[in-house]
Design brief:
The structure holds two protein chains of two kinds. Chain A is mostly helical. In chain A, helix 9 crosses helix 10. Chain B is built from 14 helices and no strands. In chain B, helix 1 crosses helix 2, helix 7 runs antiparallel to helix 8 and helix 12 runs parallel beside helix 14. Classes of the chains: A mainly alpha, B mainly alpha.
Chain lengths: 175, 261
Amino acid sequence: MLKVKDNDLDKLGLLFERYKKPLYGFFYGMNKDADLSEDLVQNVFLRILKYRYLFRGEGDFRTWMYHIARNVNHDHFRKNKLKAKDSLEHWQERLGSDENRSTEYQKDEELQLLSMAMDRLPDDKREILLLSKFQDKKYKEIGEILGCSEGAVKVKVFRALQDLKAVYKELEKHM
Amino acid sequence: MSTERIQELIEKYNAQQADPAEMKLIEKLIEEGLIDIAELHGLQEMEDQLVRMDLPQPSLKLDDTFYHMLAEEKRKGNGFSWKTFFAWPEFAPRLAFASVTLLLGLAAGFFLRAPQPQKDQQIGDLRQEVSDLKEMMMLSLLEKESATDRLKAVSLSEDMGQASQKVTSALLQTLNHDDNVNVRLAALDALKPYSKDSKVREELIRSIGKQDSPLVQISLAELMVEMQAKSSVKELEKILHNENTPTDVKKKIRESIQVII
């Protein structure tokens, strides 16, 4: 990333290749919209390019990138808050197609259930679990992204996991 | 808190018997790092499953748009743009460098400049030398036999601006004693600017009686009118009484005396 900062833009291609999948996974996990997730990944790299001189090189690049990703996600949903409320039909459409998608990707029944349980969690809980997944449970770094202590992250993860477990069990009963 | 109590809490949680107060306590212990999430039944499995959970992959369209954006950015980076030139993080060192260079230049100029009074002194000296040289040349030319050279000398004195006393007395000498009428007339012309000087004025009046050339006499009479020199009337009357003076000259002088009085 430091090379990108010094205007060696080819190196951004390497970063893109390394992080496009987890980043896309993070956005997809958050909004379940394939096209939108691609747009948001693109936006993250656009911001990295635009604000590359702000990267101080002290912390981990991945942490910085997820920090930007969160902002991109929040900005997008803040802008589209009203639109999202209006388009109930669009939501129904999306939910339908998502079910098809999840069967496509989650062959394993358990994982399919988990994915459905994740979708039913509130945004903040889903976000912390996705960050935990893509940051390899490095709670200190997640704390840097969210602007809180490592201990606070652990508690958030604990609560989110508990909720996830509860929803999962509930879904299991209905299956 | 004792390890036994912590263990007891974990067991209660795993048996799903923890009450809300105990749940709060467990959260606190997790925050402090005294309980690991992995120890709590069911949560570790959930987290592991989450890690295994596959998410869809981005399409090739994402690669296309990204590399297109990168190429665009590189193209922009190669071209010059005022916006990037003035972008603060890059502009700041440039500005600093420019300011330091400017200050260094000003400082160098300040220390390297020649002291002003000395320079003025040098120019003054040089000017003095040149006018001394002109003066010397003029004086030596006045002594030449050739009338042309002497005329040159007189015209040289006209270039001098403020001539010294030496020059004016040399010119007066020429006016009174030169053989050539033209040279004398030129000397008279050259003396005109100094007619306000009382010494030159006196000498000019005295010179009237010494002239025998009608042309010089008339020129002198005209100069006296210009100078409004009343003391010259006596000298002019002498010319009038002289029998050798031509009638035309006498007439002109009479007119001049009328104007002066």
